[in-house]
Amino acid sequence: MTFLSSVVQWLTEPFLYGFVTRGLVAGLLAGIACSALSAFVVWRGMAFMGDAIAHAVLPGIVLAYSLGIGLFFGALGAAIFAVFGIGLLSKDDRLKEDTAIGVMFSGLFALGIIMLSRSTSGQDLSHVLFGNILGVNTSDIGYMAIVVGIVLISLKLFHKEVLVTSFDPAHAVAIGLSPSLIRYGLLMLVALTTVIAIQTVGVVMVLALLVTPGAAASLLSHNLKKIIRLSLVFSTSATVVGFYASYYGNFPSGPIIVLTLTVFFLGAFVYVRLRRI
Amino acid sequence: MKKSELNPLGYGGACTLPLRDDCPALVVQDLGFTYPRSETPALAGVSVKVKKGELVSLVGPNGAGKSTLLKLIVGQLTIQQGSIEVYGCQAHACRHRVSIVPQRSTVDWRFPITVHQVVLMGRYVHLGWLKKPGTQDYEAVDRALENMKIRDLRDRQIGELSGGQQQRVMLARTLAHDAELLLLDEPLNHVDIGTQELIFHTLEKLTQMGKTVLISTHDLGILKVHFSRTLFLDKSIKADGPAAEILTPETIAEAYGFQFHKEEAVV
Prior knowledge:
The complex is a heterodimer. Chain A is mainly α. Chain A has helices spanning 2-12, 18-43, 47-67, 71-91, 97-118, 126-130, 138-157, 159-167, 169-174, 179-220, 224-248, 253-276. Chain A is globular, with a radius of gyration of 19 Å. Chain B has a domain at 24-97 and 183-192 and 213-267: Rossmann fold (3-Layer(aba) Sandwich). In chain B, the strands form two sheets. Chain B has a six-stranded mixed beta sheet, sandwiched between helices. A four-stranded antiparallel beta sheet of chain B has the order 2-1-4-5, covered by helices on one side. Chain B is globular. At the A-B interface, helix 8 and helix 9 of A face strand 6, helix 2 and helix 3 of B.
């Protein structure tokens, strides 16, 4: 009995502090948005694009910081700039898309690092790079909740358009539906999601939240609905692990979340391999 | 056709254009097409007329422009020169009336999607934005699955199926689309003989119901059995008529670019 009550106490203690509770809520919101998109990022081959968006966000954040605007809007502006910049470059058929992504991605990230080193505010922005789940304020939570709402509702409303453009874009064209319209729509959702997920895992590791849950789930199921549900389970449980590790072990939250997701992925991989034997 | 007519937001909804029975199913006039960054045209001066209810095969060597022609008709490529009319309307004016079974390579077979979901895509053209499939759509899907004898596969993942089964799924999708003009781009590649027979049986039934079918193929052997009319395409229509008449050893040799030795052929 005492053991049970000490476990309960261990689990509930963090919630005595408002900022800690906010951290968990933020982590879960980011996890939900990422896992809803993860299956599409994995199966449409948008991983590199997702990584590019995450890194390209940096100059936007630094700029917003020095101008005193909300970081959310700075990040989002830079993400949208990157998406359309890459789209514009890869329209020229002398450039393959991944080349365009590579150029924009590293260029914008380099710009961000230089701006960061010159930023005179003296503030440490390392949490932007690596995430800090415990540094979230109430208005951040508000933005995150709105983004989660937008992502879930959009995926629900445009489910069939996303399906057909993923599976057979030529058929989409034949029925008058533009695959690039849907692609840009999805990229906007990825941009929004990336911006909120930076809070918890940071610019450098945001890709893990977008790719790993869907990748692990895809090892275990071929059914899209199940893949999305499993992704959700993976990313929320990784967030919870990261949250407690961050509180009790004083570990950085981002790397713990990413490591936990990687362990899930490897576990799924080994499980599938063993089952085949 | 001008580019402005292709509205990126315009898809789906009810078909409002009247179906004119007096018009040919397909009229192609002086069609030319050159791919960007290519020196030579893929199609030049293609003119052809297909009557309602015809079952027509389209043959020609690789790179002859068969797929290009089908893509232009269905609106996957934008017309640069000439014109295409489908049942008296400009091509792409009504997407309900034309459907295509694409070549295998254009589809992502590994995407996690079930047979039922794929066939349901044939109904999207009737739905459009935000509209969910209703009873009518699910019934059309069930009928299509039944016709292609793949009802038992409905919940299977598309990538797990054999090539022949996948082709049946794609044809079922086109049946669910309920188009008047059906285009099939090399549907017989990687297909077992049972599926091949089922495809022909289905196409013949469709043409008896007044639908029109244009099918591209490399398999010259089947032409005489199943088609009354064959179009020989190599950038333009080189021959048009019953397969037995237009496909002589000489015309085949010329089109496919090799020397034909009659003596060897006899042996």
